[in-house]
Amino acid sequence: MYPVMRLLWQLFLHRKSPRLPVTGTHVSRHICMPWDIDLWRELNNGRTLTIFDLGRIPLAGRVGMIGVLRRHRWGLAIAGASVRYRRRIRMFERIEMRSRLVTWDARFVYLEQSMWKANGECANHILYRAAVTGREGIVPPDRIVAELDQDMPAPEFPDWVAAWIEADETRPWPPMQETQE
Question: Which domains does the chain have, with CATH numbers?
Fold first, then answer.
């Protein structure tokens, strides 16, 4: 089940947090709950993706994106992701999540998020490709940034983000369908 109450709690906690610039970093704190774990008593990999929402949505609020989306009746769609899992997060363990917009191109915005353990180790890291969508399709990110009154050029693509985009473009779509005989 989606953690609606936890999301509402995060939105409540950060309702008066200072506004962030479009590329600012939102920091939030979370606890791995019993319903987040898998058979090995650690944070389930699928649940990790859901918990990342608890940082990404308040980030959108703090940069002013939620207001822009509502005003124009736009939506936000995830168009791809790449995750690295490196350290286990156990039940009741506290984590710090860092969420930020890295850059954008003509169609997509690229966001990164990470979860950090109390000992300073990064447990996991994700790169997202997302699109803002409207009635006419994808809304150009430059328009969104202008709507946020932060008219600025896109930051330069980090090499690792550019490499992921390039590699992802070689992936066939739709994927091959194996036939079973």
Answer: 31-169 (3.10.129.10)
Contact 52, 97 (CB under 8 A): yes
Neighbouring-strand partners of residue 132:
76, 139
Backbone dihedral region for residue 146 (phi beyond 0: left; psi -120 to 50: alpha; all else: beta): alpha
Q: What CA–CA distance (Å, rounded) separates 127 from 81?
A: 5
Over residues 14-33, the pLDDT tens digits come to: 999 999 999 999 999 999 99
- DSSP category for residue 44: -
Please tell me whether the overall predicted TM-score, pTM, comes out greater than 0.85 for this model.
yes
- pLDDT 10s digits, 138-174: 999 999 999 999 878 999 999 999 999 999 999 999 9
User: Residues near 133 by Cβ (< 8 Å), separated by ≥ 6?
Assistant: 74, 75, 76, 77, 139
What is the C-alpha R_g of the chain? 17
